[in-house]
Amino acid sequence: MRIGIFGGSFNPPHLGHMHLAESVHSALNLDEVWLVPSKISPHRSMDEYAPEQQRLAMCELAASEFPWMRVEDYELKQERISYTYYTVKHFAESRPDDTFFLLVGSDMFLSFDTWYQWQEILKYVTLVGMARKEGETKNLQKFAKTLGQYGKISVINVDSFTVSSTKIRSMIRKSQNYSCYLSGKIVQYIKEQNLYAGSDKMYHIKERTAFLEQHLSRKRFQHSCNVARAAKLLAQQYGADMEKAYFAGLVHDICKELPYEEQYTLMTAGNFAPDEAELHSRKLWHGIAGAYFIQTEFGIQDEDILNAIRFHTVGRAGMSLLEEIIYIADMISDERDYKGVGKMRRLATENLQVAMLEALTDAISSVLKKGGFLPHYTIEAYNSYMLRFGKPTEQKKGSSPE
Ligand code: FE
Ligand code: FE
Predict the structure, then answer these.
(1) What is the residue range of 302's domain?
(2) Residues 159 and 267 occupy one common structural domain
(3) pTM, 2 dp
(4) Which ligand places an atom closest to the C-alpha of 227?
């Protein structure tokens, strides 16, 4: 079989891509064209890049419209971003009877001799430069001659089709009509999944901020904004979703100033299972109530966000990165000035888990001093961080209860 390898971020795959694939398919008489979505750094913002699984799903939708098109998730399955060399080597070695063509746009083609192991790549595939603009062809052909001594090179002309993923994403953000650039199925998928809308739209940051400003005291509102900012910074440092962290930080105390009666109603209405000690400690109610509130009022279904709000008061064993970020951001927000906040800020940037252990230790000893209740969540959280990050002191003989 003659197979074309068409790699790219496909973020999203658009009609320009399909047009290229169709042109090459017929020009080179290919049996199949494989879309190979590439891996992208997990730290890239959600605004710019749709998650891997969604880019893959969109490629599948695109390919479903052509009987000769397939999607290969080889690169997505790799641990990290991989070189084209390894991809073509893998394909060629796993299918020795097939002939492979590596399809690249003109920019990539002209810089091919800078690619990792480029001469080796040419042992596995025919390199195909796709000239899209008039005048490009000559340049590409000239360069093809130079490369020709190392392997098989081919240059083909494809009619220009001016559209780019960047342009489409920007149109989506501006709520402009972009449907003529994508297949209908992908348009529908983007709408359903709310892709590329931008975090502001996804979490309605502006509206939520206005809501909080209206419903919270000045002091609590300021605190919420500060926690949001601190959470975003921690997310940046530790590689979590920054927009999600900002949103969770912003709304974490959303129910804090409601009358206790209302907090109690909200707390017990959902499935957030307050424990005995939480039911006895009114100051802890707002976390559980808040999770239920944003779930029902704002339609937030993201479990991680809901848990981050629900557990920001008590912690728990097995906290996610986002849960830790919100818990700690709440401790180190700009306006905090308790004794020990300096140490907490330092720990937060050094090691988030060690900061968690310190914060839980402080929280527990302050409850013990005041004679309050300790939720089992907090005790389990303390034990789990202590086991992994604590330095237990040697127990003196006779001092431990048997
Ligand atoms: Fe709180
Ligand atoms: Fe708070």
Answers:
(1) 199-389
(2) no
(3) 0.58
(4) 2
Strand ranges across the sheet with 2-8: 69-71, 32-37, 2-8, 99-105, 125-131, 153-157
How many domains is the chain built from?
Answer: 2
Q: Give the Å distances, CA to CA, from 6 to 22, 24, 25, 72, 306.
A: 11, 10, 11, 10, 40
- Assess whether 185 and 220 both reside in one domain: no
Domain harbouring 239, CATH code: 1.10.3210.10
User: Could you tell me if residue 397 is inside a domain?
Assistant: no
Task: Find the 252 Cα to ligand 1 centroid distance in Å.
Answer: 6
Last residue of a domain, one of 169, 193, 217: 193
In the reported structure, the alpha carbon of residue 345 is separated from the centroid of ligand 1 by a whole-number distance in angstroms of 18
Ligand 1 centroid, distance to 313 Cα (angstroms)? 6
Residues 180 and 223 placed together within one structural domain of the fold: no
Distance 286 CA to ligand 1 centre (A): 7
Give the helix ranges, DSSP H, for 239-393. Answer: 242-251, 260-269, 276-280, 285-297, 303-310, 321-332, 341-350, 352-370, 376-389
Distance between Cα 257 and ligand 2 center (Å): 11
Same domain, 54 and 177: yes
For residue 227, give the amino acid letter.
Answer: V
Beta strand segments in 72-152, E: 99-105, 125-131
Of 137, 163, 193, the domain-final residue: 193
pLDDT in tens, the chain (402 residues): 999 999 999 999 999 999 999 999 999 999 999 999 998 765 555 557 888 889 999 999 999 999 999 999 999 998 887 889 999 999 999 999 999 999 998 888 999 999 999 999 999 999 999 987 777 888 899 999 999 999 999 999 887 677 888 889 888 877 788 889 999 999 999 988 878 876 566 788 888 999 999 999 999 999 999 999 999 999 999 999 888 999 999 999 999 999 999 999 999 998 898 999 999 999 999 999 999 999 999 888 888 999 999 999 999 999 999 999 999 999 999 999 999 999 999 999 999 999 999 999 999 999 999 998 999 999 999 999 999 998 766 555 555 544
Domain for residue 126, yes or no?
yes
User: Where residue 80 sits, what CATH number does that domain have?
Assistant: 3.40.50.620
Give, to the nearest 10 degrees, the angle between helix 341-350 and helix 321-332.
Answer: 150
Q: What six digits make up the tokens of 365?
A: 């000893």
